[in-house]
Design brief:
- The protein is an alpha+beta fold and about 325 residues long.
- It has two domains: about 180 residues, Ribosomal Protein S5, domain 2; about 130 residues, GHMP kinase, C-terminal domain (Alpha-Beta Plaits), CATH 3.30.70.
- About 40% of the residues lie in helices and about 25% in strands.
- The protein has nine helices and twelve strands.
- The strands form two sheets. Strands 1, 2, 3, 4, 5, 6, 7 and 12 form an eight-stranded mixed sheet that branches. A four-stranded antiparallel sheet has the order 9-10-8-11.
- α1 packs across α3, α2 packs across α3 and α3 packs antiparallel against α4.
- It is globular, with a radius of gyration of 20 Å.
- The structure holds (3R)-3-hydroxy-3-methyl-5-(phosphonooxy)pentanoic acid.
- (3R)-3-hydroxy-3-methyl-5-(phosphonooxy)pentanoic acid binds next to α4 and α5.
């Protein structure tokens, strides 16, 4: 056994889905963007044949060849460590390194279970740190492996979250063409509000699947409308038309409401934004809780934010992230 300790550090950004969540699972396009909130993963090898994962006050310790399902993760707050463990054991076995252990320290600015891509970012950062320990820094491989790991978490994952967390930027996703960058003509001011209501993406995605099976023609109609909104949104970004872009946020939200993935807190926070001067607002991610995004008028953002911040909810202005995963 090699006794030398290798170390690596990596970080990956959170993401927001600007347009097309849920419909993207059924071959519709979407616009997804990385934002400047990050998860950092500090990794080092150990010679104890154990995987130790620590995040704040939470930690788990599992034998390298152990199965995390046998270890009781009773505390719901700790369930986010499960996919991280899966990423570690997958890379160890892929690299034929089952004879070493790993210590991971996770430090996250991304709220968990709020639709901001915390699970994708943690998979991407973990996989990148692990590959880096073994001198492999191929971003495409990081994306492919973390997408596979995400699909273990919810079976119908579209993979868009992992892509944007790996490569950063504002991404246009078209099922037949893949991903391409959108470079908006103007800077847009994006506000995120978190409801504090945690959701399980897998469960909400399953509920939508059921909705689609029971209401196939309604779902088709909603999908067509979502596609039209997406097209207008792409053009308004390219043209720098914030009024139209804001309007598209709100139109997209109406479809998500009909799909049954909104939540009273989401509706309330959206009303606050619109009544305070936001140009548009919608939920982002799976919904049924989680986060909302609002587009603020760029030159009046300070006063609109001041009004919105008086209402309940956690609010944060965010910038788009163009770096994606960073190793080292
Ligand atoms: O809530 P999040 O961040 O996990 O986003 C889920 C996005 C969905 O479109 C609902 C599912 C998917 O895999 O694209």
């Amino acid at each position: 056994m090699n006794n030398s300790i290798n170390k690596a550090v990596s970080s990956a950004p959170a993401k927001v889905i600007l347009f097309g969540e849920h419909f993207v699972v059924y071959d519709n396009p979407a616009i997804v963007a990385a934002i400047n909130k990050r998860i950092h993963v500090y990794a080092q090898t150990n010679n104890k044949l154990r995987i130790n994962i620590k995040s704040g006050k939470n930690s788990i310790c599992i034998l390298t060849r152990g199965n995390v399902d046998l270890v009781s993760i009773r505390d719901k707050d700790m369930s986010f460590l499960h996919p991280i463990f899966k990423c570690v054991s997958h890379v160890l076995s892929e690299k034929n390194k089952s004879n070493i252990g790993i210590d991971l320290d996770i430090d996250s600015q991304i709220p968990y279970g709020e639709g901001l891509g915390s699970s994708a970012a943690s998979c991407v950062a973990t996989v990148a740190a692990l590959y880096s320990l073994f001198s492999d820094n191929n971003r495409n491989q990081v994306y492919e492996t973390s997408k596979l790991m995400e699909q273990n978490i919810h079976k119908n994952s579209s993979g868009v979250d992992c892509y944007v967390c790996t490569f950063g930027g504002i991404m246009n996703y078209e099922p037949d063409k893949g991903f391409s960058n959108i470079r908006p003509k103007k800077k847009f001011t994006l506000l995120i509000g978190t409801t504090g209501v945690k959701h399980s993406t897998g469960e909400v995605v399953s509920q939508v699947k059921e909705f689609r099976e029971k209401n196939s023609s309604q779902f088709k109609d909603l999908s067509l409308k979502a596609k039209a909104i997406y097209k207008t949104a792409v053009n308004s970004m390219l043209e720098g038309n914030e009024l139209e872009l804001g309007r598209m946020f709100t139109e997209n939200q109406k479809l998500l409401y009909k799909l049954g993935v909104s939540h009273p807190k989401i509706e309330k926070m959206i009303d606050v934004c619109l009544n305070s001067g936001a140009l548009g607002a919608k939920l982002t991610g799976a919904g049924r809780g989680g986060a909302i995004i609002a587009l603020l008028p760029h030159d009046k953002s300070t006063e609109v934010l001041a009004k919105i911040s008086k209402s309940p909810g956690k609010w944060m202005l965010v910038e788009f992230d163009y770096d994606g995963v960073i190793v080292g």
